């Protein structure tokens, strides 16, 4: 009934920033679920949380930037996350083949697709390239793996875990930043309409 | 001091000399060459000896891990002795040191200097070994964890299992896992953690099986190349790319094969095939050998099409995608599906590419599939073609099965059976019925729509009529079927035999008839049916003499032996008339007729018009049988029951169904209920019930109803009179005892006993013997019931009390009513004293207190006092009375009277009298005017025997 009532009420057209924020929230939930699935497979991760360096850090951006700059900042991080995710998929397919097609593999592909959409959406929001951090140097897929003091297979598992953590962190940041961005834009539009 | 030093030097020199003198030189140039992945340590040294003692230590704690004597020959070329040790522990786990000495029986050389290979527990990092090992299921393995310099070791977990670790060195710890189970997809994790519960490092071990493939078979699809397939065996549990199984076929890599695709192809046929499956844990080899012609597996025919389709046949063509098939001697199997039925037909020939399908049915949809194989050295059927649909053309219908049934001498119907799909050869448009007779020229033809299956026949004269019926469809008209009117024979004109059903069917047999040149017809229909009845029939060849009419299905007829079963709807409980006709060129002739039930049932209705007629003590029951339709079986008889409340008692079983009455004899005067049931071979019906109440004749009623009771009454009176006369003394004593007169001094000097006073008719005198209340009531005996009841009527008596309700003395002591009924209040008490009209007498006269005192010590008659009003108060009142009695013994006037008592008005003269007392004794009135006097006197005289 509730849904029926909602469908009857006119829904105002959502702004691009609002849609991007919603997509980021959805992606954040996907990434959280993806990590849960990975921890079900590698159950030692539930008992022993690996420490170590973050994989995605953006130190080049100015501190206390504007919201638009923060969106650009987050987008840069998401772009790096995307590269890491692509590396992760390549490595896992190479190692395990494409025969394994469980929920983890299916959701992994979904996250990749939605992350691509989010990057595209946030790129469209930053029309003038405002807030964009300087382009990061091209990333090597093995980056970060050698930091783990363990066998290759074990190091790869730890690295995968870290990549998923980065995805969760940055999609959460993206959803919050885009929400603020949307709120500000909406306020500005209302002020313009009043004027 | 110098002397001691000199002695020591001499001794040491002596020992060295003795060792040197035994000829065994110390091994030289010991070198260690570790193979870390293989966990082996190769030793090489120079020596002249062949027998050596070896010792290997974990360097840091100098724990001996090997102490062995080995015989090692020198390499003739290099002159080096070499020996390899397989370490159960990864060599990286800690440093290992080795020393060696030569041995000759009991003589040994000096140990070589220790040679050490460093472990990885020296750099300041965490490690775990071995790394990413692949091992077979069931293996044992030792893992070690090298902890960081600043960390404290806590535990090593194998999967989820915490293992017991041993310390190898200051920073190195090891666990040994035995009989390892198969790993999950991504291997088994081994985790090393610190005291802070943080993960230090880890490794992965892949535990699985070697390949288990089996059953290699090679075949050719194109008569040139080969395709080899096999079955996947046991799961290897190895999923990572490096551990997947690799295949080679006759030494050539088979790249298309993997965990799911278990086939491999080769461009050329080779008679011998070897497949090798290899993974890191092992190798398996599969072989197969065969000639190419023995392993032909044809591809599916393509372009299947029907080039010529007729009503009863079709020509099918197809082509082959492999040109080499054209010369191959092959066999093809064609499968036809029509109406959920399928049939297969085989054809053969070289390079077969077309066949003619015979024996099809007109106007039928067929679906055809085709597959072929090599005729010589048949290996297996090839792939099946895609289904192809054929619809055959229509053809004229088959001739109808026609019969004529006469329901009177000049009326009848011609019937025909509907044609099945197989016989109609196309949707029917209708029927044509033509009628002709010998006396009339020409034929009358009538067209009927397809839904009709009968046509009425009317005979205007006595000549036979011949009717021809034909079916029509778009392809044409069927051959006409003719039938000539048979002579009508009602059942009454024939002696109809009774036919017993057997398992729901009729089995018929008849004598052969020489004139039945065209065979016989068996006809059956429900008996008594008229008009358009469900007539059924079966035409039989002249050789048949038996037939079975069944409600199940039709089978074939058989002469002289097996009965024919036909598909009919023989309904259980319905009587059928079954007739056999012989067929000539002219009209059919009735040979025999039966009536019977395929399966008998109990009658659906009870007998009708059940009545009874009483004649004296006999009853005649009579009834009528139910109608034939409700009989549902041949009535075999009747059973008569006498119905009681719970069951039926069989009193007669009439086995002759023609008898429809029964006389029940010798019934007594009572009510009876009779049940009459008809029964067939299936059982009895529900039964009809009739009831009767047997009545007497008038004379009997007079005798029994009047004279007998009178006689009995007289007899009783005489017997009672005699009895009472004989026992008059006892009766007098029991019912009318002698009552002594009262004794009072002077005029009152009558002896103590009942007071001889003239009571008011409704007075009651209570004579109190003892002023003290005697609650125990010892020595009292109960007042007769009649008297008690009369008192209880007016007094509230505690009938639940354990005490006797009312106890009094006769002639001596009479208990006070108010105290016998202690719970009664004053009003009740006074009511009791006044209310009784039977036994209570209130005296208005004055009695002498002295005489009372003389009669009773401190007691005497007590007037009724105003009683207490509550249950707790009688005690207080009682004590007060008691004190009063002590002080003022004698009569006391009643304090108050219950004026609302209805009897109070009648005794207004005595009410308020200070001498009013009550008595419950029998008091003999002096006056003859008193009411009890006459009867009392008469009865007393009677009992006394006085006149």
Automatic annotation (TrEMBL), chain A:
<dbReference type="InterPro" id="IPR000151">
    <property type="entry name" value="Ciliary_neurotrophic_fac_CNTF"/>
</dbReference>
<protein>
    <recommendedName>
        <fullName>Ciliary neurotrophic factor</fullName>
    </recommendedName>
</protein>
<dbReference type="GO" id="GO:0070120">
    <property type="term" value="P:ciliary neurotrophic factor-mediated signaling pathway"/>
</dbReference>
<dbReference type="InterPro" id="IPR009079">
    <property type="entry name" value="4_helix_cytokine-like_core"/>
</dbReference>
<dbReference type="GO" id="GO:0005127">
    <property type="term" value="F:ciliary neurotrophic factor receptor binding"/>
</dbReference>
<dbReference type="GO" id="GO:0043524">
    <property type="term" value="P:negative regulation of neuron apoptotic process"/>
</dbReference>
TrEMBL record, chain B:
<feature type="region of interest" description="Disordered">
    <location>
        <begin position="845"/>
        <end position="871"/>
    </location>
</feature>
<keyword id="KW-0675">Receptor</keyword>
<dbReference type="Pfam" id="PF25552">
    <property type="entry name" value="LIFR_D4"/>
</dbReference>
<feature type="compositionally biased region" description="Polar residues">
    <location>
        <begin position="907"/>
        <end position="922"/>
    </location>
</feature>
<dbReference type="GO" id="GO:0005886">
    <property type="term" value="C:plasma membrane"/>
</dbReference>
<dbReference type="InterPro" id="IPR013783">
    <property type="entry name" value="Ig-like_fold"/>
</dbReference>
<dbReference type="Pfam" id="PF21177">
    <property type="entry name" value="LIF-R_Ig-like"/>
</dbReference>
<comment type="similarity">
    <text>Belongs to the type I cytokine receptor family. Type 2 subfamily.</text>
</comment>
<dbReference type="InterPro" id="IPR040817">
    <property type="entry name" value="LIFR_D2"/>
</dbReference>
<dbReference type="Pfam" id="PF17971">
    <property type="entry name" value="LIFR_D2"/>
</dbReference>
<keyword id="KW-0812">Transmembrane</keyword>
<keyword id="KW-0472">Membrane</keyword>
<dbReference type="InterPro" id="IPR003961">
    <property type="entry name" value="FN3_dom"/>
</dbReference>
<keyword id="KW-0732">Signal</keyword>
<dbReference type="InterPro" id="IPR036116">
    <property type="entry name" value="FN3_sf"/>
</dbReference>
<keyword id="KW-0325">Glycoprotein</keyword>
<dbReference type="InterPro" id="IPR052672">
    <property type="entry name" value="Type1_Cytokine_Rcpt_Type2"/>
</dbReference>
<protein>
    <submittedName>
        <fullName>LIF receptor subunit alpha a</fullName>
    </submittedName>
</protein>
<feature type="transmembrane region" description="Helical">
    <location>
        <begin position="701"/>
        <end position="725"/>
    </location>
</feature>
<feature type="region of interest" description="Disordered">
    <location>
        <begin position="885"/>
        <end position="947"/>
    </location>
</feature>
<feature type="domain" description="Fibronectin type-III">
    <location>
        <begin position="396"/>
        <end position="492"/>
    </location>
</feature>
<keyword id="KW-1015">Disulfide bond</keyword>
């Amino acid at each position: 009934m509730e849904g029926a009532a909602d469908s009857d009420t006119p829904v105002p057209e959502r702004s691009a920033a609002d849609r991007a924020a919603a997509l980021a929230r959805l992606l954040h939930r996907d990434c959280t679920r993806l990590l849960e699935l990975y921890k079900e497979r590698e159950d030692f991760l539930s008992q022993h949380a690996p420490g170590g360096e973050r994989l995605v850090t953006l130190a080049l951006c100015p501190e206390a930037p504007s919201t638009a700059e923060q969106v650009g900042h987050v987008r840069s991080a998401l772009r790096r996350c995307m590269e890491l995710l692509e590396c992760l998929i390549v490595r896992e397919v190479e190692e395990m083949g494409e025969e394994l097609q469980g929920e983890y593999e299916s959701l992994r592909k979904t996250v990749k697709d939605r992350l691509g959409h989010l990057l595209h959406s946030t790129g469209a929001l930053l029309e003038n390239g405002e807030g964009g951090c300087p382009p990061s140097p091209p990333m090597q897929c093995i980056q970060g793996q050698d930091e783990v003091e363990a066998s290759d297979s074990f190091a790869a598992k730890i690295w995968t875990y870290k990549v998923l953590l980065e995805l969760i962190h940055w999609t959460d940041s993206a959803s919050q930043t885009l929400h603020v961005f949307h709120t500000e834009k909406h306020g500005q539009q209302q002020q313009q309409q009043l004027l | 001091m110098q002397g001691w030093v000199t002695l020591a030097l001499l001794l040491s020199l002596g020992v060295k000399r003795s060792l040197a003198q035994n000829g065994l030189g110390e091994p030289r140039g010991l070198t260690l060459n570790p193979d870390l992945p293989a966990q082996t340590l190769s030793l090489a040294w120079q020596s002249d000896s062949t027998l050596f003692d070896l010792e290997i230590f974990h360097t840091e704690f100098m724990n001996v891990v090997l102490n062995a004597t080995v015989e090692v020959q020198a390499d003739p070329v290099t002159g080096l002795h070499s020996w390899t040790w397989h370490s159960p522990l990864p060599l990286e786990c800690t440093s290992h040191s080795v020393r060696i000495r030569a041995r000759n029986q009991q003589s040994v050389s000096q140990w070589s200097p220790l040679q050490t290979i460093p472990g990885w527990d020296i750099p300041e990092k965490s490690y775990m070994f071995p790394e990413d090992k692949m091992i077979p299921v069931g293996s044992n393995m030792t893992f070690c964890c090298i902890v960081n310099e600043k960390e404290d070791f806590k535990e090593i977990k194998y999967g989820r299992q915490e293992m017991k670790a041993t310390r190898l060195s200051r920073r190195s710890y090891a666990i040994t896992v035995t009989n390892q189970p198969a790993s999950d997809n991504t291997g088994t994790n081994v985790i090393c953690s610190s005291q802070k519960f943080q993960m230090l490092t880890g490794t992965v071990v892949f535990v699985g099986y070697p390949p288990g493939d089996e059953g290699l078979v090679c075949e050719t699809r194109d008569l040139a190349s080969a395709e080899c397939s096999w079955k996947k065996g046991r799961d290897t549990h190895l999923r990572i790319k490096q551990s997947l199984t690799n295949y080679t076929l006759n030494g050539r890599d088979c790249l298309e094969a993997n965990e799911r695709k278990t086939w491999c192809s080769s461009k050329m046929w080779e008679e011998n095939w070897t497949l090798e499956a290899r993974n890191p844990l092992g190798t398996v080899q599969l072989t197969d050998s065969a000639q190419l012609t023995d392993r032909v597996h044809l591809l599916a025919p393509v372009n299947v099409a029907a080039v010529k389709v007729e009503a009863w046949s079709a020509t099918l063509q197809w082509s082959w995608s492999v040109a080499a098939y054209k010369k191959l001697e092959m066999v093809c199997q064609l499968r036809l599906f029509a109406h959920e039925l399928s049939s297969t037909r085989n054809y053969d020939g070289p390079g077969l590419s077309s066949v003619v399908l015979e024996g099809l049915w007109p106007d039928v949809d067929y679906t055809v599939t085709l597959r072929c194989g090599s005729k010589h050295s048949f290996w297996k059927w090839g792939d099946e073609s895609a289904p192809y649909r054929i619809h055959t053309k229509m053809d004229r219908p088959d001739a109808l099965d026609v019969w004529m049934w006469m329901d009177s001498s000049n009326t009848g119907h011609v019937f025909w059976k509907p044609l099945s799909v197989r016989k109609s050869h196309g949707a029917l448009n209708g029927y044509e019925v033509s009628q002709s007779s010998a006396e009339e020229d020409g034929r009358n033809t009538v067209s009927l729509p397809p839904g009709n299956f009968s046509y009425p026949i009317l005979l205007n004269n006595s000549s036979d009529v011949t009717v021809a019926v034909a079916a029509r469809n778009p392809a044409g008209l069927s051959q006409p079927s003719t039938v000539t009117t048979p002579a009508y024979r009602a059942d009454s004109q024939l002696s109809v035999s009774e036919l017993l059903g057997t398992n729901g069917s009729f089995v018929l047999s008849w004598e052969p008839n020489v004139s039945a040149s065209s065979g016989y017809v068996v006809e059956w229909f429900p008996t008594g049916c008229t008009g358009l009845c469900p007539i059924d029939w079966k035409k039989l060849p002249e050789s048949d003499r038996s037939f079975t009419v069944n409600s199940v299905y039709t089978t074939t007829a058989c002469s002289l032996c097996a009965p024919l079963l036909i598909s009919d709807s023989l309904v259980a409980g319905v009587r059928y008339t079954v007739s056999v006709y012989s067929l000539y060129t002219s009209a059919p002739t009735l040979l025999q007729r039966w009536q019977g039930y395929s399966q008998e049932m109990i009658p659906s209705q009870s007998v009708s018009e059940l009545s009874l007629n009483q004649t004296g003590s006999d009853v005649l029951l009579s009834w009528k049988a139910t109608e034939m339709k409700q009989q549902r079986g041949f009535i075999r008889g009747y059973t008569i029951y006498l119905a009681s409340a719970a069951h039926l008692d069989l009193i007669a079983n009439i086995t002759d169904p023609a008898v429809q009455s029964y006389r029940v004899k010798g019934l007594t005067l009572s009510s009876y209920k009779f049940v009459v049931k008809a029964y067939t071979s299936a059982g009895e019906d529900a039964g009809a019930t009739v009831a009767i109440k047997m009545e007497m004749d008038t004379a009997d009623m007079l005798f029994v109803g009047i004279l007998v009771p009178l006689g009995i009454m007289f007899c009783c009176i005489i017997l009672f009179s005699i009895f009472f006369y004989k026992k008059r003394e006892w009766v007098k004593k029991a019912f009318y005892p002698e009552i002594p007169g009262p004794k009072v001094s002077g005029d009152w000097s009558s002896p103590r006993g009942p007071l001889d006073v003239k009571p008011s008719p409704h007075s009651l005198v209570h004579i109190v013997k003892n002023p003290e209340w005697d609650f125990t009531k010892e020595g009292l005996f109960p007042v007769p019931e009649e008297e008690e009841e009369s008192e209880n009527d007016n007094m509230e008596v505690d009938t639940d009390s354990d005490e006797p309700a009312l106890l009094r003395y006769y002639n001596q002591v009479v208990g006070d009513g108010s105290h016998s009924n202690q719970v009664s209040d004053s009003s009740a008490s006074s009511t009791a004293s006044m209310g009784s009209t039977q036994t209570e007498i209130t005296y208005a006269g004055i009695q002498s207190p002295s005489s009372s005192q003389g009669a009773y010590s401190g007691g005497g008659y007590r007037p009724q006092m105003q009683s207490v009003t509550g249950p707790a108060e009688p005690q207080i009142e009682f004590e007060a009375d008691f004190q009063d009695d002590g002080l003022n013994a004698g009569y006391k006037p009643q304090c108050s009277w219950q004026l609302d008592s209805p009897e109070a008005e009648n005794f207004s003269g005595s009410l308020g009298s200070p001498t009013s007392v009550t008595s419950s004794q029998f008091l003999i009135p002096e006056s003859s005017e008193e009411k009890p006097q006459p009867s009392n006197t008469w009865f007393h005289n009677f009992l006394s025997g006085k006149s």
